[in-house]
Amino acid sequence: MISGKLANRALGPARAGILGWPVTHSRSPLIHDYWLKMHDLEGSYEKLPASPEDFQDVVMGLMEAGYAGANVTVPHKEAAYALADVVEPSASRLSAANLLVFKEGEIRAANTDSYGFLQSLHEGAEDTNIEKNWLSNPVALLGAGGASRAIIGALVDAGVPELRISNRTMEKIESLGFLCEGTQTKMTAVPWSDRTEMLDGCGLLVNTTALGMSGQPALDISLDKLPDFAAVVDIVYAPLETSLLKVAAQKGLRTVDGIGMLLHQAVPSFAAWFGVTPKVTPELRQLVINNLEEKS
Ligand code: ATR
């Protein structure tokens, strides 16, 4: 197999970037630049602002300009999926893509968010038997937006028996029902007012809402019903230790912060464009944390 470095040289430095609207605050360039440097590759990764009206033209322009591909973030993940010529199962099952690879004149789409979530969960588990403790019991999920969609996909893959999902807008939970159809995972929609009650017996609680993020209202929930073996994940990473994670840690529960998902979802993208599978190192994690602290 041709190595990433050789592939890169043969085709000239590979170019990629992140498409979003807005894209100003994305940490993806920081992550990919770190790996490019670490692997001594000549490629580049840039912020690619694209409004919803311009999205398709911008993607076509990148392909014509010889880009290797792009990541896609809010609000374009569904449009990216719809635009692709070839779609991997990781994207088709979610009807959303965050990775585009341009190859032989085709747009290929994948979704690495579910992978990023599961990798982050495994990293946070350390010595814990997560299959036995966190994933063989019901899982409680707060939120039913874009991030929730990828996390439901990941939890279905992990074989979770029951997903209890609570969201301010109930209809949005119902619109995600297709993700569990034909799987071993039973989805239960829980009214927002019952979010504390639903934690009874759950092995894992995941917050995918914006609540608790800097500038957003606090997440109001009591963790008293969670069993001792449960873990709590917050995908919010600004602040890194949200008040949800603080309370969970005070109760002696295992916590997983939102940086891991951000870092791990980037791995398959880098591998697809630059030909090397990079590592999520403690140094990279610290680099991103420092950057978040500088900008907050
Ligand atoms: P993302 O792509 O990060 O998931 P999103 O699709 O905008 O972002 O979803 C944001 C989530 O946070 C939604 O579940 C949203 O609830 P609604 O579906 O009812 O909008 C939730 N959220 C945002 N602000 C909220 C608030 N003040 N109270 C409760 N939930 C809130």
Enumerate how many helices there are, as a single number: 12
What's the overall average pLDDT, rounded?
94
Instruction: Give the distance, in angstroms, between the N- and C-terminal Cα atoms.
Output: 44 Å
**Ligands, deduplicated:** 2'-monophosphoadenosine-5'-diphosphate
Characterize the overall form.
Answer: globular
Overall description:
With 296 residues, the protein is α/β, with parallel strands linked by helices. Helices cover 38% and strands 19% of the residues. It has helices spanning 4-11, 28-38, 55-64, 77-83, 89-92, 113-125, 130-133, 146-157, 170-174, 243-250, 259-274, 282-295, and strands spanning 15-20, 44-49, 69-72, 86-87, 99-103, 106-110, 139-142, 162-167, 186-191, 204-207, 231-234, 254-256. Helix 2 (28-38) packs across helix 11 (259-274). The longest helix is centred in the C-terminal third of the chain and has 16 residues, at 259-274. The protein starts with a helix and ends with a helix. The structure holds 2'-monophosphoadenosine-5'-diphosphate. 2'-monophosphoadenosine-5'-diphosphate (ATR) binds next to helix 8.
